[in-house]
Design goal:
Blueprint lengths: L2 H7 L26 H7 L24 H14 L3 E5 L2 H12 L5 E5 L4 H13 L3 E5 L15 E7 L11 H11 L3 E4 L4 H4 L9 E5 L13 E5 L1 H14 L5 H33 L4 E5 L9 H7 L6 E6 L5 H9 L5 E2 L9 E5 L15 E6 L5 H13 L3
Parallel strand pairs: 2-3, 2-4, 4-5, 5-6, 10-11
Antiparallel strand pairs: 1-7, 6-7, 8-9, 9-12, 11-12
The structure holds pyridoxal-5'-phosphate.
Length: 395
């Protein structure tokens, strides 16, 4: 089945759902049973969806989830090619739950230097407080990761591409080293999504997505996903349960509704974003464009080898000579690009950032001004016109 079909056919069961096309929003705290024995049987501590035998092991209390969440988890697992899926109240919560499940006092983790900012903050504040050290590594490290793995290194965290600067990591090379040393590899797969990067085919053990982005697709929910195989699911699920992580059925409903159209939406984002990126490369005020699908981009070869496509988010690099005021003028005057965090919704977005203040493992050597664009589903020609007018405001 192709992803477009799977996204629509997965966890569809109109008979179970009394004829409704979508799985209803099942709301409950208590789950009722016919007998005490039946209750005891249901409550064996795992609601993890296993796409292997289709069993939902735990529907005994609301925090374990309801059928709305189980259907979402089933579809997520199938889409990404994993055995198990869990959802969390945010993408960041998916990351922190997985990290907490694998480390303890005295341990070390390896974290990519281009990682999403709040992940970095969690390591530097919370993990540090718990006695876990974080070593940041150069995103281009590849099999060189081997030299950083110490006896107490409990995991390698990757994010490819990074969501501001778009470095593509050599995930197969990292996985090869880590698989041999039995160190789990985690990926933040929010940019590529299950559509364009298949983590488990590249040796990754645990994948995380900000469901807030392309899965939700309409800037109206916050949700995270964790997908994994047999080896790590018990550890992750125990921490998940012990932390009391739970997601409201309304959000699960919205995410499942979003997934149905995700492949089609992503292809539209991909097409406009790539066209606009290529067009911007030729503009005389643009020094370079950081977009993995451009042949001029440093990570292009790796991207081409490992990814099935590109999505809607990329960065343009402008000459340092433009004043901060004129950059603000450019951003503030945009007609269709909203000023704000996040991406993956239908609407275009713009932000300005400076990676040189963030990195610690490898100095970011681009001294120019970086502007990140998220290309929404508006007409490409309108967006181009908006950007063209915006670039005119730079001086
Ligand atoms: C947005 C984002 C997250 C976090 O998702 P939230 O749902 O906003 O917590 C994690 N990783 C990446 C790369 C993101 O862009």
């Amino acid at each position: 089945m192709k992803p477009e079909t799977l996204a629509i056919a997965s966890s569809k069961n109109y008979k179970k759902n009394q004829g409704t096309v979508n799985t209803p929003i099942h709301k409950t705290s208590t789950v009722l049973f016919q007998s005490w024995q039946e209750y005891m049987e249901a409550d064996h501590g795992g609601d993890v969806y296993n796409s292997g035998n289709g069993q939902i092991a735990d529907f005994s209390y609301g925090t374990g989830g309801t059928p709305t969440r189980f259907d979402l988890q089933k579809t997520l697992a199938e889409m990404e090619g994993a055995e198990y899926a869990l959802v969390t109240p945010s993408g960041l919560c998916a990351i922190t739950t997985v990290l907490l499940s694998l480390v303890g006092s005295g341990d070390n983790i390896l974290m990519v230097d281009s990682v999403y900012g709040p992940t970095r903050r969690f390591c530097n504040k919370e993990l540090k407080r718990l006695g876990v050290t974080t070593t940041y590594y150069d995103p281009s490290i590849g099999s060189g990761i081997s030299e950083l793995i110490q006896d107490n290194t409990k995991l390698v965290f990757t994010e490819s591409p990074g969501s501001l600067t778009f470095e593509i990591q050599d995930i197969p090379a990292i996985s090869k080293v880590c698989n041999a040393k039995d160190v789990p590899v985690i990926i933040d797969n929010s940019w590529g999504t299950s559509l364009y990067f298949k983590p488990f085919e590249h040796g990754v053990d645990i994948s995380i997505q900000a469901g807030t982005k392309y899965i939700g697709g309409h800037s109206d929910i916050i949700l995270g996903t964790i997908t994994t195989n047999k080896k790590y699911i018990k550890k992750i699920f125990n921490t998940y349960k012990n932390l009391g992580v739970s997601v409201a059925p309304e959000d699960c409903y919205m995410a499942l509704r979003g997934i149905r159209t995700m492949p089609t939406r992503i292809k539209a984002h991909e097409k406009s974003a790539l066209n606009i990126a290529k067009w911007l490369e030729k503009h005389d005020k643009v020094k370079s464009v950081l977009h993995p699908a451009l042949s001029s981009f440093s990570g292009h070869k790796l991207w081409k080898r490992d990814f099935g496509g590109s999505t809607g988010l990329f960065t343009i690099v402008l000459d340092k000579k433009y004043s901060y005021d004129s950059i603000c003028d450019m951003i503030n005057g945009m007609k269709y690009f909203g000023i704000g965090a996040s991406w993956g919704g239908y609407e275009s977005l713009i932000i300005h950032f400076d990676p040189s203040t963030i990195r610690t493992a490898k100095k970011w050597d681009i001294k120019e001004t970086c502007i990140r664009l998220y290309i929404g589903l508006e007409a490409e020609s309108d967006l181009k016109e908006d950007i063209l007018e915006g670039l005119k405001r730079l001086d």
